[in-house]
Amino acid sequence: MSKLSGRDVDAMIGSYRVNFDEASISIEDGTGATKTRGIPDGFLPGDVAASGEIKLNTGQFNIILQAAKEAGSFRGLPTFDLVFNAESSDEKLNIEAFDCKLSVTDLLNATQGNERLMHTITFEVTGREFVKVNGVSYLRPEEIERLN
Predict the structure, then answer these.
(1) Which residues contact 36 (CB under 8 A, 6 or more apart)?
(2) What whole-number distance in Å separates Cα of residue 115 and Cα of residue 123?
């Protein structure tokens, strides 16, 4: 049986295919228990947020640099949908994060050894579609249907 590993993951930042050294996305869900007299008696949905980071070598970072150049600056970059796909003979994973705003956090990470120069881009998910995993939305349809 063939299981998924990081080598199986392809990433698209908008229409740009990038190869990363590390990638992560995390969801913060503020849903919490309600209590009466200190005893749990249900829950209330809370705010949600998602963010992550992508670590790239210089060659891959230059792809993002070209997009920033076309936009006039890094801060001028539009939001991008990020798509992470992984597939083996036995497993499949597709994660979509919508309207992500990119920021450069580690412009340069260099060591004196024989390791490649690395650059870290972080992102915040800003789109109402938020995040989907294998086509399944994290949010309920009624949570986003009345948003303008």
Answers:
(1) none
(2) 25
